[in-house]
Predict the structure.
Amino acid sequence: MMDQAAKPQDRLAAWLAQDMDLVNGLIRTRMASEHAPRIPEVTAHLVEAGGKRLRPLLTLAAARMCGYDGPFHVHLAATVEFIHTATLLHDDVVDESARRRGRPTANLLWDNKTSVLVGDYLFSRSFQLMVETGSLRVLDILANASATIAEGEVLQLTAAQDLATTEGVYLQVVRGKTAALFSAATEVGGVIAGADERHVRALFDYGDALGVAFQIVDDLLDYGGTVAAIGKNPGDDFRERKLTLPVIKAVAQADATERAFWTRTIAKGDQQDGDLAQAMAIMARHGAMEAARQDALAWAAKARTAIGTLPAHELRDMLADLADYVVERIS
Amino acid sequence: MMDQAAKPQDRLAAWLAQDMDLVNGLIRTRMASEHAPRIPEVTAHLVEAGGKRLRPLLTLAAARMCGYDGPFHVHLAATVEFIHTATLLHDDVVDESARRRGRPTANLLWDNKTSVLVGDYLFSRSFQLMVETGSLRVLDILANASATIAEGEVLQLTAAQDLATTEGVYLQVVRGKTAALFSAATEVGGVIAGADERHVRALFDYGDALGVAFQIVDDLLDYGGTVAAIGKNPGDDFRERKLTLPVIKAVAQADATERAFWTRTIAKGDQQDGDLAQAMAIMARHGAMEAARQDALAWAAKARTAIGTLPAHELRDMLADLADYVVERIS
């Protein structure tokens, strides 16, 4: 009997433990390279760091709750984890991050070159894995997700430092950096299982809303978390001059003095000691953190509603609980 | 009547001009991004710089000489050009190059971040294009080529500065950086046309040998070309401490003094004025340039032999002439 008090993600991991063993085995096999020993060194650094394996669990859960009993949900789960890891490697180059998952990033331990090329290698390995499923529809979904991810990353780069960034642009960036892979992960699980179209659609909607909620929470914690809780330094987004949701909301309501503050710190990048605290005080004054929190809760509720349209299943209930859990850190 | 004295590539371009117009139109359409205007700025910089469009011509020629009259050779030609351009963007980050195709590189005009992310975007766009062909075999070939490319790049990174690099490792690197995409370009042309298996195999062998010859020539010219001829600074490979074929051959025959020279300049990277000239003198002493030149000629002959097994066709003869032309700069 499963402990109902356990975290939803742990309950998913327990239910799907056998499948997940196969996924981990496939990941280890496919991240190897006969000719270039540096590849498994770098990928092992990331893969062993653990991460939460959330995306592959989403794919496995979606396929299993739709009754799939073939082998290819394992390939697809490994595919989404490879895409995720490749994205992290390239992100770390782009963000010039020093820490990831609480450990030094690959680009600090090796160099940017290695991060770029090993990321490319993992992308191409993920591509091979999905071709093996023989499903053109799955390939189409993942090709589109890849384009959305890359487009969102470029958009984030150009939107950074731009005080005119709207909540609409923010949502596009968030879809790219997080929600596109979440929704592809759940959708391909349904597709490989041959689920009804309306169920496939609901799985997509669930992943999309879960991803948006997840990213808003992440962005909120960057202004309120600790290194231990978020695995990176709080305030990184501010220092990198990213227009995340609470900042966008605060900028929208800024008076002249505040606007000058945002222009100096974000648009011009002239930051001094105490500016981060000042930014947080301004956001608190306008209720920007609270408003962003409410948005995250609404996306989580949307995810729960979407998954609720699928037939009753233990995994369905765990996914619904996961939507609540994602926002629990800010509740 | 085609001028038989024209360069083979120009004859190919003239014969395939209508198809190539469609390819260029598709490239322009697909490199656009609704949300991220920086993407077409960067890609236009590369695409308008022209390059030689050699790879898409290979795909179009292979498909047409095998009697293809459907629409998808155009998608595949655009696919290989996108993969090539994405690879160039990432290479420039990795090599820290300042010039590409005779113009400043994207990472100098924008930044490394943009080069990484726009490269990822082009990869994902190429992936979408190939999915549209509906051919799982084409997807399989291009997925494998992508993995070979990425693996070869990582291998080159770790083989750089390593005097123990063998000609076998060099060949693997060359397959990754050049030949894998050439051979995939010709092979998918045959596959989409439904050609006989032996003809598909010959098209693969042609592209592979052509690519190896092409890269050896490129590596030779780095020690003997001019900025005008090669679109980059001669001696870049030496300064980047790359173990290319003539260096590998010279190192294999080095006496103690020469070995100390290679250890200082390549292994340790302690380079001074005059070292490039000294390296060239040592290579000349051992006939290393000439031996590498003979290797390139042998690969070109192998390409000509492979394409000669296909049925008679004007395009076939142009491809055979192209094999000779590729090595003409060193003949």
